């Protein structure tokens, strides 16, 4: 494996773009720094893509794709089976990179990595699926045949929070079916979400030009997005990330009648049903709300509890949250590790301070200890507050009481409805002090 990140006390290595099967210096020559979110240590220097480089990557993908899709299913699937085997051999090192580069605790990183060989083998298996359908025709004696063919080149933009698996899942199936890829990983995970995968597929025998990895600083991300949404040679985009960026890209794709596959953020409720085992519910919410510092698109952040058990649940989840002391990801017990970057930490601080100022009660945590945010439990949130609607994406949960299950479902689903607003106001008003 390439030496991806610096050992303690050594110079960070510099990594170039991966275009047409070759490591290439960016045309404009710029690099940005890849940091450890836990310690701030410089891990690597990463090439910062420019317009001319994106052009080269798309051109390489366009040129290579027909040859790749013309290979037999057995030839294409073999690359993915080999990649799965090589991945398994490198798993420990890749899990280490995931922890270092993104502040992932070991347990979460190991789980994430365990999904990758499954996805690779799944993609391999797709190559022999049926290619279409035979449909009836209105012309006697004839049938209509539909045939599925590769679209050509797919642009892929991926996030840093589950960077290995979400990146793999963003492109391997399409690639197995004969498409070529231009991948831009997140600026906070350029190695584990992109460059290390270029190495993996090269070692597995993928032909040049089929997977191109263009790394970009945050400042250049929008340029890549615009390029990929505008360029007619890229008919499909796959995006995993925030709803805000996803919306921008979806609008740009719609203007060009371009297809986009989105996986965005969430504002995920948990309903603790009346009579539930509260200790078990607290254990589940502790895991679902705080793992990986709550930086997962399916993290639980609105917890709805029946009025009768609300006080007990709140007391117990506070006690549980206090055990998730901010810790280095290298600590085997790490649940609440570093927030990925200062921008995200400041966003969490602003969101929670704003709700506190508007009357929400912060029972524990509620403060940044850079690069960490303390594990936080919030109550008395009203639907008028931004935090009722906006994903926290940090180690914090909101707890809200409900008076019957129908209302709980209304609250869970009714993020933006007037009924949801009225329901919260009614239950909130009826609670004792
Ligand atoms: P987060 O806030 O969690 O970082 P983002 O949606 O901002 O989530 O980032 C997800 C991916 O989208 C990253 O690869 C990032 O670089 C990229 N990105 C950010 N802004 C843009 C943009 N304007 N156009 C295209 N991609 C973008």
TrEMBL record:
Gene3D superfamilies: Aldehyde Dehydrogenase, Chain A, domain 1, Aldehyde Dehydrogenase, Chain A, domain 2. It comes from Tsukamurella soli. Transmembrane segments: none annotated. The active site is at residue 263. The lineage of its organism: Bacteria, Bacillati, Actinomycetota, Actinomycetes, Mycobacteriales. This is Aldehyde dehydrogenase family protein. Residues 31-414 form the Aldehyde dehydrogenase domain. Pfam families: Aldedh. Keywords: NAD, Oxidoreductase.
